[in-house]
Amino acid sequence: MILKTLLVLAVIGIVYFLFIKKPRVGSTQDKSASKTDHKSEDMMACSRCGTYTSVSDSILKGGHYYCSSECLNG
C-alpha cells in the first residue's frame, strides 16, 4: 500500500516538473541569449602603417582611415 502511494506521488511530481512548472525569470536560458547579442563593428586598416582599428576608434581624413594622430600627421 505504501509503495503504491509513493509511486502515485512520484508520477504526480514528474508530471508537475515536466509540464506545469514554469521557468523562473532570469533563468540560464535568458542569460545565454543575452550573451549572444554582441554588436559587431567593422575594422579598417590604417592607410599608413596597416594596423587594424575599429571604425569608431579610427580617424577619417580625405577618405582614408588612420589609427592615430601620429600616422595622420606623419
Output the keywords.
alpha+beta; two-stranded antiparallel ribbon; 43% helix; 16% strand; rod-shaped
Structural commentary:
The protein is α+β, with helices and mostly antiparallel strands. 43% of the residues lie in helices and 16% in strands. The protein contains 3 helices and 4 strands; from the N terminus they run ααββββα. The strands form 2 sheets. Strands 1-2 form a two-stranded antiparallel ribbon. A two-stranded antiparallel ribbon has the order 3-4. The longest helix has 19 residues, at 2-20. The radius of gyration is 29 Å and the shape is rod-shaped. The model has no long low-confidence stretch (mean pLDDT 82).
Rg calculated over all Cα atoms: 29 Å
Taken in chain order, the helices and strands follow as HHEEEEH
If you average the pLDDT, what whole number results?
82
What spatial form do the alpha-carbon principal axes imply?
Answer: rod-shaped
Q: Which spans have pLDDT < 50 for at least 5 consecutive residues?
A: none
**Fraction of helical residues:** 40-55%
Q: Largest beta sheet, briefly?
A: 2 strands, antiparallel
The main sheet orders its strands as 1-2
Helical stretch tally: 3
Proportion of residues in β-strands: 15-25%
Please state the structural category.
Answer: alpha+beta
Number of strands: 4
Please give the alpha-carbon distance between the first and last residues: 91 Å
